[in-house]
Amino acid sequence: MNNSLISFSLATGAFAFFVVCPRMAAMTNIIVKNFSFSIYWLVVAGTVLSIPLLLLMTWIIRQWGLMAGLGFAVATDFLAALILSSVSLKAAVETFIIALFVVAGNRIATWLTARMF
Asked: What Å distances lie between residue 99 and 19, 102, 109, 114, CA to CA?
């Protein structure tokens, strides 16, 4: 196995673990609590539908940087909240709050690590 294949495998594995994050768990829980269908179908179908959005977010980050990519991600969270508001205002507000914490967490993490390293 060459180094580039090992590096690619490690990076791909790390990305897979990032996708399964606390935010994803929280959002999945919010959605499942407000709809009556299989959580497994939600995860599979939602993952397939998210691929073009992930590619678009990646392109935005490469073109305009991380904050632009986060802006796009937050915009999609707002769209999710808007969709959920037709079912549950509480779910929509929870989704909005989680989006705000993601942006704040990114800024705090960047600020802290800049002082640490």
From this structure: 15, 5, 15, 23
Distance between CA 21 and CA 15 in Å, rounded?
A: 10
Q: pLDDT tens digits for 4-60? A: 899 999 999 998 888 888 778 888 888 888 888 899 999 999 999 999 999 999 999
Contacts of 92 (CB under 8 A, 6+ apart): 81, 82, 84, 85
| DSSP-based three-state secondary structure for 53 | helix
What DSSP line would sit under 5-42, residue for residue? HHHHHHHHHHHHHHHS-HHHHHHHHHHHHHS-S-HHHH
Q: Which residue has the tokens 């499942």?
A: 32
CB 102 within 8 A of CB 70: yes
Q: Are 32 and 42 in contact (CB under 8 A)?
A: yes
